[in-house]
Each structure stands twice: as structure tokens, then as C-alpha cells.
Design brief:
Elements lengths: L9 E3 L8 H9 L6 E2 L17 E4 L21 E4 L8 H14 L8 E5 L3 H15 L6 E6 L15 H12 L7 E5 L5 H12 L8 E4 L3 E4 L20 E5 L3 H16 L8 E5 L5 H9 L4 E4 L1 H6 L2 H14 L1
Parallel strand pairs: 1-12, 2-5, 5-6, 6-7, 7-8, 8-11, 11-12
Antiparallel strand pairs: 3-4, 4-10, 9-10
Length: about 325
């Protein structure tokens, strides 16, 4: 089943700035978003530790950076971000309650879609899907589930989307439950042909289209930013190294390459051609939106630029897109 209509073709990615009910309410009310994504949640929530799970914006040239750990701090002059975050501390059921309440209270006549980002073991993700589908059956807004299989910051748990056998475990678990709403996988940045082949081969091995969309990409792991004054890691981390996930403008060329390659490979297989792509990675203006659409993204999600600029970034992107067409 296809993604619900997302118009305008902009939404937020799963990130720190869609963590709270207030975040989601503001994103839903914004006239320049066509859908809203929740921060990635687990059934019981993630054990967030603010002393080690942090983010910062930084300059690619100087490594000057914003203070870390405070989601309210933006860095408008800094186009890149690094994070050592995990998932949302808020359990899935709380997000579902918020979604139901936000939709019920909203004056918007045509409800926007919510994409509920979830993760966990294969069985837990299947349970998450069932709970989101149960909510979708009783409310007016279209819902979809994004299974985040790509976070680089979980110690001793490499992203499942790098492994064919791990991917198949998720597909097998999800095949056992009724599918009534769209399902997608969020993938990590792939950097060589074999990684793309693993994903495509695994999807093809399940016969009928096993998913409905791919969100590409998550942050790039194994990245390090040093404090420009002391030469030490800018951020703490669970492993104590300060190594985390890179996002923002430095990720953009790699994200474009991932979207372009995935679109080409999906189109080569009749059973996969209907899988949509949500493009994410370094988009902050109309030109970035146009590039993502040109390589095959059906819609585009914003992460770092939302943290830097706040909700006005969506209006800026759409206004620039309209102006460029005049």
C-alpha cells in the first residue's frame, strides 16, 4: 500500500525536535508540513541519560560548536550536527495517546498523516505495528509505521539494516501480522554496492513487496568532532569516545547517492517498484528539496535544519521552491 498523500511534500524526520507532545502539536499545526514523524520509540521507552546522550551543531571548517545536551539550543550559523543519542525515552503508547489527542483537538479539516517511528527486536517492532494499526482503525488521520533499523549509537547493537539475516528476521516477524497501514524501513547510509545489494536481495526474497517505503538515510556513524579549544571529543557517549552520528549538510551528498541508488535498484525489480522513498539528509533549502526529488524521493524529511532554524525552515524551503519555478 502506498504512503498516504503528503502535501506539501515536506515533513520532519525522527529526531530530537519531535520528542514531546508540544513538538508534535507544533509540527501538526504548521501549514508547511504535509505530515509529522514521531521520534523513534520503543514499547517501554529508551533509558535516556542526558549526561551521555547529547547532540550539538558545529562548523565543518572550525569545529566551533553549540553547547550540547540542550535541545532548545539552536545553532543557526552551524550547518552540521553530531549526536550520541539513542531513542526516545517516551514509550510508544504515550505517543499514540498524544497523536489521538492532537488530531481530536486540531481544527484542521483534513487530517495530516502521522508516521510513527519505532524500533526494538523483530517481535517488538511487530507489536508496535499492531498497536499503531489499532489506533489507525479508530481515528480519522492516516498513519504509517517506520521501523528504524539504522541507529549507529546503540552499543553492541549494529544497525540491523546492514545485515541481510537481521533484516529477514524483521520481515519474517512482520509477515505474521495483518498489514493494514503502510510500513517502511529507515536505513543507514550505505557506502558500497554490497550493502545496497543486501537490502534489495532481502526484500526480493520475500516475494510480494514486504514494505511500502524506505526512509533514507539515518545519520552516518563513527564520526567524531573535537572541541576546538581543548582538542577533546565534543560530546560524551556511552562508550566514552564521543563518536556519534553525523547529520546536516556534510551528509547531503551521501544521502542523495543513497536515494538515487535505491530508486534505481527498486525500479529494476517489478515487485519493488511501488516502494516509495522518503529522502532525508542535509536538506535545508529549496535547492536541497529539488535535488532529493530529482533523484527519486517522493517526499523529503528535515532534521538538522529543523533543529537549527525551527518550524520556519519549512516555509523557507517551500517559498524558495515556488520562487524558483516562477
Amino acid at each position: 500500500m502506498p504512503l498516504p498523500t503528503i502535501d506539501p511534500p515536506l515533513l520532519n524526520s525522527a529526531n530530537p525536535w519531535c520528542s514531546t507532545r508540544e513538538d508534535l502539536e507544533a509540527l501538526y499545526a504548521c501549514p508547511h508540513t504535509g505530515a509529522v514523524t514521531t521520534r523513534t520509540s520503543l514499547l517501554l521507552g529508551f533509558p535516556h541519560d542526558p549526561s551521555i546522550h547529547q547532540h550539538a551543531f558545529f562548523s565543518m571548517q572550525s569545529h566551533q560548536a553549540t553547547p550540547a545536551s540542550d535541545y532548545t539550543i539552536s545553532g543557526k550559523e552551524y550547518p552540521a550536527s553530531l549526536n550520541t543519542l539513542g531513542y526516545s525515552p517516551t514509550p510508544l503508547d504515550t505517543y499514540l495517546q498524544w497523536i489521538e489527542q492532537i488530531i481530536a483537538a486540531s481544527p484542521i479539516k483534513k487530517a495530516k498523516p502521522f508516521i510513527v517511528s519505532v524500533t526494538g527486536s523483530p517481535e517488538e517492532v511487530a507489536e508496535c505495528y499492531s498497536r499503531v494499526a489499532a489506533l489507525a482503525a479508530r481515528i480519522s488521520a492516516p498513519l504509517a509505521v517506520e521501523a528504524n533499523l539504522s541507529c549507529p549509537n546503540i552499543a553492541n547493537k549494529p544497525p540491523p539494516a546492514y545485515s541481510g539475516s537481521a533484516l529477514k528476521e524483521y520481515l519474517d516477524a512482520l509477515e505474521k501480522i495483518p498489514r493494514t497501514i503502510p510500513l517502511g524501513f529507515k536505513t543507514p547510509p550505505y557506502t558500497y554496492a554490497g550493502q545496497f545489494k543486501t537490502l534489495i536481495d532481502t526484500l526480493c526474497g520475500n516475494g510480494t513487496p514486504p514494505i511500502d517505503f524506505i526512509t533514507a538515510t539515518n545519520t552516518l556513524g563513527s564520526c567524531l568532532v573535537l572541541d576546538s579549544q581543548e582538542g577533546k571529543p565534543l560530546l560524551p557517549s556511552a562508550a566514552g569516545t564521543g563518536i556519534g552520528g553525523l547529520a546536516g549538510e556534510p551528509l547531503h551528498p551521501l544521502a542523495l547517492g543513497n536515494v538515487a541508488t535505491l530508486r534505481q535498484l527498486l525500479d529494476e525489480h517489478s515487485e519493488l517498484r511501488d516502494i516509495d522513498i522518503i529522502g532525508v539528509g542535509g536538506v535545508s533549502d529549496a535547492a536541497g528539496l529539488a535535488r532529493m526529488q530529482a533523484v527519486g524521493a517522493k517526499v523529503v524529511a528535515i532534521g538538522t535544519a529543523l533543529g537549527r532554524e525551527g518550524l520556519p525552515v519549512f516555509a523557507k524551503i517551500l517559498h524558495g521552491a515556488k520562487t524558483s519555478k516562477l
